[in-house]
Write a structure and sequence with these properties.
- The chain is mainly alpha-helical and about 260 residues long.
- The protein has three domains: about 80 residues, no CATH class; about 80 residues, no CATH class; about 70 residues, no CATH class.
- Helices cover about 20% and strands about 5% of the residues.
- The longest helix is centred in the first third of the chain and has 20 residues.
- The chain is rod-shaped and about 135 Å long.
Length: about 260
């Protein structure tokens, strides 16, 4: 319940707030709502504080100002449902916006090839990066399960010792897409042992035989993987071309001569 110079000060503060923060603001004339200088005494519980009827008048005046802001009219309430007001007559409600924050994205990099997990008779291996300057000049080199490989040497992976046949990381003028690994830990220096063959000249390996995908998987390939006990790991029934197993096609290598 203010008037005169005090009302002017309140209006000035409201205008400053609206300009400073770019939001709608207004003042509500509660003094006038209660009748101004001709106020009804029944609207007060004492000479200062409004009673129930006075509070209802204050609430009605506040509602009128709110309607005037929302619908752009004089704020009078004709009893209609606010939700039925035409959408285009409503003033938009400003919502605070936050300045977007941008998170930098890292430049994609080639994922390194997984490090093979060697078995007990395989060396520790490390795949060279694609087209690495460390690729050896000669790419037709020993398989990675060859006994006696030393740290620092290179080998060609073909699925053995956890190597990846699709690594395709080194090339030269003669060979493209070789799968080259560096030895980072020595392999056990086992040498193949064979059962006595009895010296029969008829006991020979079939050079045309191979198993699986035949790359190379022939008898020479069978002879290259030696278990800690000295026997050949690939001399077994399941390594077959569909007709003969390694035990049958490679009798001299596997020591199965009659």
């Amino acid at each position: 319940m203010i008037h005169g110079e005090l009302q002017d000060d309140v209006d000035a503060v409201a205008q400053w707030f609206q300009n400073e923060y770019d939001v709608y603001s207004t003042t509500v004339d509660f003094f006038g709502a209660l009748g101004g200088d001709d106020a009804d005494a029944s609207d007060y519980v004492d000479v200062v504080h409004p009673g129930p009827s006075g509070l209802r008048k204050l609430a009605k005046e506040a509602k009128r100002e709110l309607r005037a802001w929302r619908y752009g009219d004089d704020g009078s309430d004709d009893g209609s449902n606010d939700d039925n007001e035409p959408e285009e007559t409503r003033r938009p409600t400003r919502r605070p916006t936050r300045q977007p924050s941008y998170r930098p994205t890292s430049q994609p990099t080639d994922r390194p090839a997984p490090r093979p997990r060697p078995s007990s008779d395989c060396p520790d291996l490390e795949a060279l990066p694609t087209d690495s300057p460390d690729c050896p000049d000669e790419l037709d080199i020993a398989p990675c399960d060859t006994p006696g490989l030393k740290a620092g040497e290179f080998c060609e992976g073909d699925g053995e010792c956890g190597t990846d046949r699709t690594l395709d990381n080194c090339s030269n003028d003669l060979i493209s897409r070789a799968d080259i690994y560096r030895i980072v830990g020595s392999t056990p220096n086992y040498q193949p042992t064979r059962k006595p063959t009895g010296g029969s000249s008829d006991c020979v390996d079939d050079e045309s035989w191979c198993y699986g995908d035949c790359s190379p998987n022939d008898c020479a390939y069978v002879s290259q993987k030696v278990k800690p006990d000295g026997t050949l790991a690939r001399c077994k029934e399941k390594n077959t071309d569909g007709e003969r197993s390694a035990l049958e096609a490679c009798p001299r290598t596997c020591g199965t001569c009659p």
